[in-house]
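Researcher: Here's a chain I'd like modeled. Treat it as a single chain, no partners, no ligands.
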Amino acid sequence: MQRSIIKNYNDLPDILNSSLVAQSLGVGYSTANKIMKSDGFPSFNLKMNGHRFVTRVDFIAWIDEQACLAE
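Model: Modeled as a single isolated chain. Structure tokens:
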């Protein structure tokens, strides 16, 4: 597993792509894509390019939810 390069949620932009999700979680790009396509992950797809995105607010909420599930 890679280390996250994001040290603070405030460092994130309002909209994250799969590359930023990967960097934030410290995982590879393909793993981030799988996570973003999984049920329960709050991503959305832009029809014009097919790429998935997530808002910073939803991403932080998802991380907090995962932390609670792990307890």
